[in-house]
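hey so i finally got around to running the thing on that chain from the lab meeting. sorry it took forever, my laptop kept dying and i had to restart like 3 times. anyway pasting the input first so we r on the same page abt which one it is
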Amino acid sequence: MAVSLQSLLDGMHDTPATLASQHEEQRIDAELQQRRATAGWSLFGGVDSGRFREVETTGIQEFEGYGAQLGLRYPLLGSMQARKASVTDARVSLAQAQQMTELSRAEQRMLLRQTYIDWWQQQALDDWCARQRIKARDEHDRVATRVMHKELRLSEELWTQQRWRSLMLPCGNLQQRMAQLEQRLGYLHGKPLAADTKAQVEALPLEPAPLQQWLPLLEEHPALQVHQAEQQGLQPLTRERWSDRVDASFSLAQSYDRRTDIGGSGSGLVAAITFETPLTGIADSRETPAAAQQRAAHQRYLDARQSLAQTLELTLQQYRQQLDSIALRQLQLDYTRQLILEQQERQRINNASEFMGLRMARLEQADIGLELINDWHAAWSLLAELETLAEQQLPLLSTKQVEWSAKADRPAPASHQEPGWRQSAYIWNSTLLLDKRHREQQINALTSAGFNHVYLGFDAEQVARLEQLSPNIEQLIRQLRQHGFIVDLLLGDPAWISAENRADLLQLIDRFAALPFDHLHLDLEVEQLGWPVPDTRLVDWLQTLEAVSNVSPWPVTLVGHHRWFAPTARGSGHCIPCALPDLDIDAVTIMLYSTAESSVIERTAAIADAWPELKVSLAQSVESTLPQENSWQGSSHGELEALNARLRRQLGKHDLAGLAWQDWQHYLNIIEAGSQVP
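ok and heres what got predicted. didnt touch it at all, straight out
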């Protein structure tokens, strides 16, 4: 299951560091409330008791007495200003604490972004290593065979082994590093990631805006907000008045007195204003401490802003350089792909002298793929820094992006507009198309029959001569594309489902890897290994699909019996269509071989509606080897065209991607024979 970086950011919980900052906010807020309470009226009072000896005209009077006083006091002038300053200091501290919390949260988001990107890099390396291990074994076997037959020197074998061993060094301890990064991601996210979670790579914007368009976004950065909050909070305290130097207060008090020598008690209500000021302080002109503090905050703001602007400028510059490096790597991949094709052709002519040249070209291709992963990681990390500096929509000159090819060490297929409706032909025997004398005629026949998509298969003899045939296959693909065709590689053998035969399929894919097919189409029918199909075979099927998806340089598509894609499959023990999106397989062709047209339409529509996450195509057959109720063999070409139109009209409403015919040779026989339904 793939999890996006944005979903982790959206669901991020605060770490203990951020929670500690929030508790500090609460402490300062409580202190602020206390200081606010002291800035207004205050209650004062007291009691006294004593023995007194006073001198009066009548003589010395001795008595005992006691009294009490209760009153209200309100600060004035400098006393009031001092208490307001205390409140302002607490308010500034609270605003700064809030921004420090935001800064801590921003740092957490940056750490989460970087850890996620590092995690993706390790997964990309894991996929790369899986592909290169197969290639390395194949290269070692080829070289060892030449050495055994005295066609290569031992030093050349040792050189090849050393180069591959050096190239594969990053593949050590990958699982341990990924586990550590997953654990760290769980900590930063706030909860552990689900098992078998995969990173989802993001596209990189190609045209970030110039620096001047980024600068306004810096004002929202918490590091600047801390200093801005201090400046704004201190502003009321920077205006100095002479009265601020006078400590004064107004009080209103009620007193009560009682003496032992006089009957009764006394009382009084007193209103008073008191003040105090240094004699040398009133006339002096001096600056308030808050003014100097505000200027210091302003300088800290300017310094932080300049530092952020320099970091932003450097990050933008490095990001553009990494984009250039990625573009260069992609060009180098195209170059090495062409070089391998040429080396294969030269080896066909001069087997001995070009053998090591082809080995070096394959090494270079693998090395460039590794560097492309590292370049993408570096560029994405820089983009994460930009996103942290400006937690808003990034300023871009355009919406152009560069997409990551899931198979970093292989060039992506040539881009072209894919048709909205695919009419596909299975071509298990591509001999006539590879024959230049018949190629144009075959392509014209496919076009005239309404096809725009072909699955190209190759027999054992052609696979054995693949290096010699590669230039011819590439030329065929180019010509088909010129006629508007999507061209997929077709591989099918149910034996590859089992774990012991899976490596044969992966090695075969690697042999075709340099050819620019649009997709890899797998025909692995689990039923052909025996019925009923046990759950263990379904598990093997999915594991084979996962292994193929990891090594294939092209997007993988699948053809299978309709029973595995029935709407009731959702919720079953082994739901094949549920698992496919996690394997990066989003297109399937269902084999529903039946001449009961209405039933075909009804069941296909239900399947297409049940799996909106998949692009579903329908396969029909004109094979003469099938029973009459399962094949349209015997229909005329006109009847097949009418059937194509009806199926497209009825099933297009259910977002069916297209219609595939099994197979082209039988379909062509119908066209040529012009037979009618009896």
